[in-house]
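Hi support team,

I submitted a single chain yesterday and got back a structure, but I'm not sure I'm reading the token output correctly. Could someone confirm the output below corresponds to the sequence I sent? I've pasted both exactly as they appear in my results page.

Thanks,
R.
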Amino acid sequence: MKNQHTRHLIKVLSLSAITLALSACGSNSSENSSIMPETTTPETAKLPSVLIGAVSAISSSSITVNQRELPAASAEIEIDGVNGNLSQLQVGMIVEAETNGAQVTEIDYDPNFKGPVLIENGMASIAGVILEGFDSTLVNNGDLVEVSGFNSAFNTLTVTYQQAITNSLTELEVEGVITQLDTQLRTFQLGNITINYQQAEVDGLISNGQFVEVEGIMQAQQLIASEVDAERQNGFDDNIDTELNGKITFINNNSTLMTINGQWQVSLTEQTRYEDGTVNDLVVGALVEIEALYQQQSDLFMAQEVDFESGSSDSTTINKEFSVAGVASFNEGIVTINNYQFTLSNQTVFDDGLTQATINGQFLELEGIITDDINIVSEVELMDANDSLSLTGYVITQSEQSRLWGYVSEDNSLNAYADQYAEVECELVSGNQVRACRLDD
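Hi R., thanks for writing in. Yes, this is the structure output for that exact sequence:
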């Protein structure tokens, strides 16, 4: 199974490597100098120990990654788990390049997807993940393709490289959020793909709403899995300096926790510094670069600095966030509040010393993402029932009453937001009765 930090855009740098790499950039005043260093790396400059990004150029003796031209004549090359050579790499592939400070020693490439593409209403997707920038002009619906890129939303991948797969027996690699799990037949759905895991090696918990990576072979309209990975631990050393690049795909109500590229949970503190923006600019879809210390125990990245980058653009799909509070019941990965179900995943962060074993019957606040009609929980916190309720979601009309997550306003204050997606604060009366609902500032 692919290494997590290889598959996604994360550069792991030692503190000394960061310092030396920055000093090598000099004071270049070109348009791109504030974002990336110059293309040519002087022979005397010490390279970062690890660089991860898209290949933009290749020669017989070098490779350019993140606009750095890297000496790579003697590098060991691994392409999708197989030994290769420099000439087999292609522009657009997301690679991990390890260096000894002077030249590249190893280059690894693993695709994000190898699977059947679904083309519907002019939009391409694999396993329910929308492919932005995918060229479908030479591809038919159902064709096998290889795709490399970076996650720009929870279920959206920005494609930087694609290639047709002509061998139908090629081992495929897909990822996504489980739906329609059948534990008796041992099948589930990833988007439009049926996964049969009867003979698979399974790592971690399989449940609806869980994000998994799957390897296997297509047979008779099913992907027969050989491996299913639901663990998703980052696996870095404790307190290692990291640099994360990508889009915010979740931010909680008090701006203390966010998710980058639908993958990395980042903790924000009073000590976090902000460049080219403020904490108020932390919104879903914003493009950021984050310097952080990885915390092994919590599996969180503690942000030291957040740099807002230009070039942010709306994704084809921006997942809606939700917030709900109330007395929770818990069973087999599902939290229920007011008869609404909220799914815990392998990325859910538990605050206030909570665990899955201690949340049943507690008054909780849940925040997360609504995707494919599944409410996936990003954060779980204890809450005082006397505090105002923060409720974010779709206000529906039922029996001539407006309701939000099962709450009904006794003073009809929810009526102003009927049939809308709204973020409100309400005062709890009792049970599922609230009052004084107003837009949350």
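A quick pointer for reading it: The radius of gyration is 23 Å. Let us know if anything else looks off.

Best,
Support desk
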